[in-house]
Design brief:
mainly alpha, 68% helix, 0% strand, TIGR02206 family membrane protein, CHP02206_TP0381
Length: 252
Amino acid sequence: MHFSSYLDRQRTEDFIMFSPSHWIALSIITLVCILFYSLRFEIRTDVKLRQSVRLLLIIILMFSETGLQIWYFSQSVWQSSSSLPLELCGITLLLSVIMLITRSRTLYSFLYFAGIGGAFIALITPNLVYPFPHFRFLLFFIAHGGIVLASLYMTWIEGYRPTWKSLLFTMLGLNIVAACVWVANYILGSNYMFLSHKPSTYSVLDYFGPYPYYLLVEELFAFIVFLLMYLIFFWMPEQRKSRRKRISRIPY
């Protein structure tokens, strides 16, 4: 097969969810996250290594969005109604770049939930039609994996932590973002963030009822996912740690 076929907008096959290539992509991202976690102390204590990892993540994210825009133009498919970075993951990708550059705690408060949560759902149920090894397939998983790793970097390496206020801040921020995107959809005649109708490919929204009710269910679903992300990975470990400290102080 000619290399150009991996870039061509025309395709002979469609992406199949939970196909071997999908599972392999998910497995690679999971393994990278595990490796990242296992090396967190080494990265944290080595200033040059920490800066290099942060720069690498910035480059990966910028390459993902730039590469996508170049592909749109090269294939003559760029349209304001579908090619702007106004999907949630496009927005969180750009915000992740800014967060990594500025090490903003405010952006982290939003991106730990909206970035990781949104990218995770997208990775499980990709809005994708191009199969492996097409450029768009590779770009999709690199970009969404990069969004996840950006917030994990800030958590594991920089030591940032979300709070209950972060969760509420994220829900407020998502609604503000959605309102702005809704205005953009109205002007452009687009469907960014699927605020006008569901995607044509299979997604979790298929279980949330018809328009516009699925938007309300989606908001509740997001809140539950974010709540679990906080309870499981922060609140519960902190409670166990506090309990162990109390027990250790009890005199025998």
